[in-house]
Automatic annotation (TrEMBL):
Keywords: Oxidoreductase. It comes from Undibacterium hunanense. Signal peptide: none annotated. Pfam families: adh_short_C2. It comes from the Bacteria. This is 3-oxoacyl-ACP reductase FabG. PANTHER family: OXIDOREDUCTASE, SHORT-CHAIN DEHYDROGENASE/REDUCTASE FAMILY (AFU_ORTHOLOGUE AFUA_5G02870), SHORT-CHAIN DEHYDROGENASE_REDUCTASE FAMILY PROTEIN. Residues 16-195 form the Ketoreductase domain. Belongs to the short-chain dehydrogenases/reductases (SDR) family. Transmembrane segments: none annotated. The keyword Cell division does not apply. SUPFAM superfamilies: NAD(P)-binding Rossmann-fold domains. InterPro entries: KR_dom, NAD(P)-bd_dom_sf, SDR_fam.
Amino acid sequence: MTQILNTQANTTLNGKVALVTGGSRGIGAAIAQKLARDGAAVAITYASSGDQAEQVVASIRAAGGKALAIRADAQDADAVRQAVNTAAAALGGLDILVNNAGAAVFGSIDDFSMADYQRLLAVNVTAVFVAAQEAQRHMKEGGRIITIGSVNSDFVPVPGLSVYALTKGAVASFTRGLARDLGPRGITVNNVQPGPVDTEMNPANGPFADTMRTYMATGKYGTGAQIASLVAYLASEDAAFITGANLKADGGFDA
Ligand SMILES: NC(=O)c1ccc[n+]([C@@H]2O[C@H](COP(=O)([O-])OP(=O)(O)OC[C@H]3O[C@@H](n4cnc5c(N)ncnc54)[C@H](OP(=O)(O)O)[C@@H]3O)[C@@H](O)[C@H]2O)c1
């Protein structure tokens, strides 16, 4: 009986194909693994962490799933487009796009460099547009576009985050507009906005962590797996009525 229940719990995405950008580490790796556990075939992209990307793929395959890693720097729009098409060709279509790849640079307006500004715009915003544009060409009714934004879209309690917040605000607005464009085709578009999650980008034992915890109702960093659960739900058929939503999973960071 337990065996049957476990099997049933892991079939919500059976037959679906997902692409998770930035799936080699952190939140993206947790999302890729969760979508695969729920039955999806999963492609991930990475820019430089090839070994870690292959480990994610190996762990999915070892559990009986189908996975593929594609090198595609999110700063390169052509590479992002190509990654979408490679994933669809290799895995037989595309049902779910998770725009997770992201970069953070902290700094005051006085000395924030144009190079950093352009990199954050390219990775956090332009790549999201490009991947969504290319992915929706492959999607049928039931398609899902999910972006990993940030609670900093709406709440910026410390200095030094203005450009990062700008990029995460942009994808929140893009989510609303794109939901209108794709709704008539039965494709949903949502934005998950995490608060502090323990990854290399924002380690729970890092220099800013104690300050971050003071803003949280729970006082505890989240995990990639917690974000992945919400993404997997949004990717499922059960979430067909949710679109254009900016959904926080932030331990009460902006409560
Ligand atoms: N951690 C948090 O507290 C937090 C909170 C709110 C929102 N977020 C958002 O959640 C997402 C994931 O963050 P994370 O904490 O998991 O970060 P992370 O641990 O730094 O991992 C980032 C992932 O994105 C990939 N990536 C970075 N730049 C890339 C590029 N130019 N092209 C392709 N892939 C790239 C990395 O792969 P490579 O190593 O191969 O570059 C890696 O797989 C980001 O969008 C971030 O803004 C994080």
